């Protein structure tokens, strides 16, 4: 069963709030890393697959779990997770929202986000 992040509205950004948040590529570069990795996998991935991307980017193994959890909360309604945010397993499925407005936003912002990721390497 897919649920909204955190299961309550108070823990999640609306889709509009998430899109405004994502416009600041310098601040949200690791959120874009998550989104781009989901796009590369057809919009759906497991927690383990996403963590491997974070590890390749050099995130400390000591903070990686909390970083992913924070990114999932920050992205709110832009994502869907299987199960509860507080009980993620390596097999937990994470999906991009298929909202047409959000998908247009991603398409429009993707190149700029990629440029920012390459600059930060």
Describe the structure.
The protein has helices at 15-22, 29-40, 47-56, 64-75, 100-119; strands at residues 2-3, 44-46, 79-82, 93-96. It has 121 residues and is an alpha+beta fold. It has one domain (2-119): Arc Repressor Mutant, subunit A (Orthogonal Bundle). Helix 2 packs across helix 5. The N and C termini lie far apart (37 Å). Residues 1-11 have low confidence and may be disordered.
Q: Provide the succession of SSEs.
A: EHHEHHEEH
Give the amount of beta strand, in percent.
5-15%
CATH class: Mainly Alpha
Counting H and I runs of at least 4 residues, what is the number of helices?
5
> Helical content, roughly?
40-55%
Q: Superfamily at the CATH H level?
A: Winged helix-like DNA-binding domain superfamily/Winged helix DNA-binding domain
Largest beta-sheet details: 4 strands, antiparallel
Residue runs with pLDDT of under 50 for 5 or more positions: 1-11
- CATH architecture label: Orthogonal Bundle
Q: Determine the structural class based on helices, strands and strand pairing.
A: alpha+beta
- How would you state the average pLDDT, rounded? 86
Instruction: Characterize the overall form.
Output: globular
Give the distance, in angstroms, between the N- and C-terminal Cα atoms.
37 Å
Secondary structure elements and pairings:
Blueprint: E1 2-3, H1 15-22, H2 29-40, E2 44-46, H3 47-56, H4 64-75, E3 79-82, E4 93-96, H5 100-119
Antiparallel strand pairs: 1-3, 2-4, 3-4
Helix pairs in contact: 2-5
